């Protein structure tokens, strides 16, 4: 009888063997599919909401920017700074100073 003090306790024949390598279940395998789906949906919604809120906070800063050039308008025939006028006709690049820089 199991409750009898004269009966020695039952000793298992064999010690339990540890699980084989690769047979341990991942932590998420015990979760039911609805809970896992809810967790993924909450993460996606939280990420999208955070991105949307940060984009909304940055949008007014971009609207205050000046959308036109602050320089005064110049006439079309006025000389442009740093540019040289080459009249229409025949023009060849090159130079006559060095022999390797002959006109093309």
Model description:
With 104 residues, this protein is mainly alpha-helical. The model has no long low-confidence stretch (mean pLDDT 76).
Give a short account of the largest sheet. Answer: none
What is the helical fraction, as a range of percent?
A: 25-40%
Query: What is the average per-residue confidence, as pLDDT, rounded to a whole number?
Result: 76
Oligomer: single chain
- End-to-end CA span: 115 Å
Count of alpha/pi helices = 1
- Poorly predicted ranges (pLDDT <50, ≥5 residues)? none
User: Strand fraction band?
Assistant: under 5%
Record the SSE blueprint.
Elements: H1 33-63
Which key phrases capture this entry?
mainly alpha, 1 helix, 104 residues, elongated
Short description:
The protein is mostly helical and 104 residues long. The chain has 1 helix and no strands.
